[in-house]
Amino acid sequence: MHFEAEIITCKSGKKLRIVSIGPDYAEQFLDFMHQVSNDTHFMSRYGNEVGQTEKDILAERERLNGLFEDDRQGMLSIFDGNRIIGNIAIRNVGKGRKTKHRCSIGLAVRKEYHGEGLGTILMEYAIKFAKTAGYQYIELGVLSDNKTAQGLYKKMVFEEWGRLPNAFILDDGSTLDEITMYKAI
């Protein structure tokens, strides 16, 4: 996904930059994922599971390059200066013709930027991109105790269509269901 950088304004009035990220952003992206995964259990990994070695950075460069060069997939990040503070990934569900009408998204925003409207902005850009890319459905998963994200997705007219019990087992042994949602576009 190639997307020219744009300036956006968050709720507090601060000007930020949104851009599609490619391989040059691998180290910044891994730093972002490490931090947001440390800040909350809502991510699919813990912070200490996000590798930041040179080998991890090289692998992330390859992954980001594949997304950047793909017209139907990509990563959009919001920057405050040179720091990624929010990100949404748009990925196709499968590679075959039977599922080419479906994409999935994953969204994260740094904790200190919660409440600034960045989740809404990222969702709006992702929905616009998905429509342009020819998708008919957007899918996502959200943990059952992540009420803020569920509220955002409902505001964006996503509908719940399933629930996987005990989808996540946390280090303390507690379990959380994953709610699956979709939006027809």
Describe the structure.
The chain is an alpha+beta fold and 185 residues long. It contains 4 helices and 8 strands; from the N terminus they run ββααβββαβαββ. The protein has a single domain, classed as Aminopeptidase, CATH 3.40.630. It has an 8-stranded mixed β-sheet with strand order 1-2-3-4-5-6-8-7, with helices on both faces. Helix 3 links the parallel strand 5 and strand 6. The radius of gyration is 16 Å and the shape is globular. The mean pLDDT is 96.
Q: Globular, elongated, flat, extended or rod-shaped: what is the shape?
A: globular
Order of helices and strands: EEHHEEEHEHEE
Largest sheet: 8 strands, mixed
Poorly predicted ranges: none
Give the count of structural domains.
1
How many distinct helices?
4
Count all strands and give the number: 8
Strand proportion, as a percent range, falls in 25-35%
Instruction: Please give the share of residues in helix.
Output: 25-40%
Report the average pLDDT across residues: 96
Attribute tags:
185 residues; alpha+beta; Aminopeptidase; 8 strands
Secondary structure blueprint with pairings:
Elements: E1 6-9, E2 15-20, H1 26-39, H2 54-68, E3 74-80, E4 83-92, E5 102-109, H3 118-132, E6 137-143, H4 147-155, E7 159-169, E8 175-184
Parallel strand pairs: 5-6
Antiparallel strand pairs: 1-2, 2-3, 3-4, 4-5, 6-8, 7-8
